[in-house]
Design a protein that fits this description.
Blueprint lengths: L2 H14 L9 E5 L4 H17 L4 E6 L13 E4 L14 E4 L6 H6 L1 H22 L3 E7 L29 H20 L2 E7 L1 E3 L10 H10 L4 E3 L6 E6 H14 L5 E4 L5 E3 H12 L3 E3 L4 H5 L6 E2 L4 H4 L9 H13 L4
Parallel strand pairs: 1-2, 1-4, 2-3, 4-5, 5-6, 6-10, 7-9, 8-12, 9-13
Antiparallel strand pairs: 9-11
Length: 342
């Protein structure tokens, strides 16, 4: 493990403070091969090792055999959460992080994107309802806020905006919205302990190979020593959160979040335009930035929201603190991905 990545994981684990509630518990993480799931299992494995918690960590993937050597501290299971009633073991804590989360998937597989969020969340909630115990943290997205130009200071958890349900690109935010409501409904009707984390745009060295988001493409160009390609003017403003900061936020919610509540996981250190993000990365990597028109398929996967800024105050009130600003987060991402030991 790269020392900078290990340092970031250790910082995230230290920031959690008391974690005794995880001792001798089974923790199940879906989407273990994605950016969030992979980093979360790394953090849980480190906590297990350093604090002697005796956790049983279970990672769920459709193709776990491809990643058998990636997670030595976890048991890997095969399951497809787009199918009805996936067979999963009972768990004390569940983090549902499985979902298509990038534009190419939204344009080519909108049905699969929706079903993983809808069927997968229902199956996990039903499992907890039948068991009569356990906690589910559903990993949602800031895209559920949609577009609301009137909100200029950043979305808080009680704000709402417009999403066009007849646009197939809405497969992602609309299925996340519906799954959030399912969590709230199971909490209200059955007393299931479920809560929601609304992630901002997350970046970092655990980026998955399948990710086709703009920032993922920027990073691949930078690592190849090529100019970063912007396929828009890049004026859209986003909140970006470094991956280990996001994981510290998820673990804070798993341990201390309120049942039936939603929380933004969004760094106050990470508000920048897409162009500003690209230019910062390009300067660090020693490459340029150029503009190019997107293909029609690429365009279909893009979000039309111009201002996707989230406020993390509610999560910070639980003790979470983001550590990496954009420049430092991107510097560390480049170093880890290049295998440079600094």
């Amino acid at each position: 493990m790269h020392p900078l990545y290990l340092e970031d994981l250790e910082q995230a684990c230290r920031d959690l403070g008391e974690v005794g509630a995880l001792r001798d518990r089974r923790v199940l993480v879906t989407g273990v091969t994605g950016m969030i799931g992979a980093c979360l299992v790394d953090a849980l494995s480190l906590l297990n090792e350093r604090r002697g918690l005796g956790m049983h960590i279970v990672g769920v993937s459709r193709h776990p055999e491809r990643f058998a050597d990636r997670f030595p501290g976890a048991e890997l299971l095969a399951a497809d959460l787009t199918r009805p009633d996936p067979a999963l073991p009972e768990a004390d804590f569940i983090v549902h992080a499985a979902s298509n989360a990038h534009p190419a998937a939204f344009s080519t597989d909108p049905v699969g994107t929706m079903l993983c969020n809808l069927r997968g969340t229902e199956a996990l909630l039903e499992q907890l309802r039948r068991a009569g115990h356990g906690r589910l943290l559903f990993v949602s997205t800031g895209e559920i806020y949609g577009d609301n130009p009137a909100i200029t200071g950043g979305f808080s958890e009680t704000d709402f905006g417009r999403v066009d349900p007849m646009n197939p690109r809405a497969c992602y935010p609309e299925s996340k919205r519906a799954a959030e409501t399912l969590c709230a409904s199971y909490a209200a009707q059955y007393g299931v302990d479920a809560l929601v984390a609304r992630l901002s745009y997350v970046y970092g060295p655990t980026l998955s190979e399948a990710n086709t988001r703009a920032d993922a493409q920027f990073l691949r160009k930078a690592l190849a020593g090529e100019d970063i390609v912007l396929k828009s003017e890049g004026t859209q403003v986003r909140t970006y959160t470094y991956v280990t900061d996001a994981i510290a936020g998820l673990l804070t919610l798993l341990l201390r979040g309120g049942r039936g509540e939603a929380y933004n996981v969004a760094s106050r250190l990470g508000t920048v335009s897409i162009r500003g993000y690209a230019e910062t990365l390009a300067a660090l990597a020693g490459v340029g930035v150029r503009f190019e028109l997107p293909s029609e398929q690429e365009r279909r996967g893009y979000s039309a929201v111009s201002h996707a800024v989230q406020r993390g105050d509610k999560l910070e009130a639980l003790g979470w603190t983001p550590r990496r600003d954009i420049r430092e987060g991107l510097r560390r991402t480049l170093a880890v991905c290049r295998g440079v030991f600094e």
